[in-house]
């Protein structure tokens, strides 16, 4: 293929690096868990994966796109991911540029996920779209009038921190009652255990989904509670941005009907405006690759 884009996707659970062709196809790609430790230990994983990808490309790439969990700061090229507490204003653009020898472009992971799905996945053809991930956290990105919308600082689309319960639990962002406090995988499992779910402390959203599929009423309540929060947020963002499509990916979304059926049911109640009646909510198609494909779109015209 022609010189590929080098794509980097940095999250609280994993760090992935890949090579993406002009038509959005992901070639070489590898990933490692995001390590515990200091900032340089985390950077060392990025360095290792990028160096391996550069070797696979023969040292010839057309550019570098970085997707990172946020908040990010586009003007300074720094990131301060909520789920990577060791990185506070970490100069990711500068460090990657020095490593690769060519300028890098930064985008929020939610925006890159949305762009990846619009380019090669379930968002194809959408002009006003929210792409979101429901997993360890809840993130999102907006495509408005067919173009990525990153906002003043690069953080537009942070839908996981839409407040759906003003008197709700404290959030890692410093607020209270955010969607993420209810619908993220760890918080779903935590709520279920606190309300009597008989599961070991390490049980996560996958085990919760297994229990719900087996008919456990408390697990089903946890999914319904999460879906209600997600649907309320979608109704609000949909009304503000006049959306025509929402694409949801991430580990919790892999539960399928457990999440999507109640989301669509509750959304039908809350999205009462006529222009929202055709709003589609679809599962993502690219899985964990969406962030890499979307990061590549930062340096490839799509």
Structure, explained:
By secondary structure, the chain is an alpha/beta fold. 36% of the residues lie in helices and 20% in strands. It has helices spanning 39-56, 92-100, 109-120, 179-183, 185-194, 205-213, 217-241, 257-270, 290-296; strands at 5-10, 14-20, 26-33, 63-68, 72-73, 78-79, 104-108, 129-134, 138-144, 147-149, 245-249, 280-283. The protein has a five-stranded mixed β-sheet, with helices on both faces. The chain has a five-stranded mixed β-sheet with strand order 10-9-8-11-12, sandwiched between helices. Strands 5-6 form a two-stranded antiparallel ribbon. Strand 11 (245-249), helix 8 and strand 12 (280-283) form a beta-alpha-beta unit. The two termini are 17 Å apart. The model has no long low-confidence stretch (mean pLDDT 93).
In terms of per-residue confidence, which ranges show pLDDT below 50 for 5 or more consecutive residues? Answer: none
Structural class by helix and strand composition: alpha/beta
Beta content? 15-25%
Total beta-strand segments: 12
Q: SSE order in H/E notation?
A: EEEHEEEHEHEEEHHHHEHEH
Overall form: globular
Query: How many individual helices?
Result: 9
Helix proportion range? 25-40%
Keywords:
single chain, 302 residues, alpha/beta, five-stranded mixed β-sheet, 9 helices, 12 strands, 36% helix, globular
Brief account:
With 302 residues, the chain is α/β, with parallel strands linked by helices.
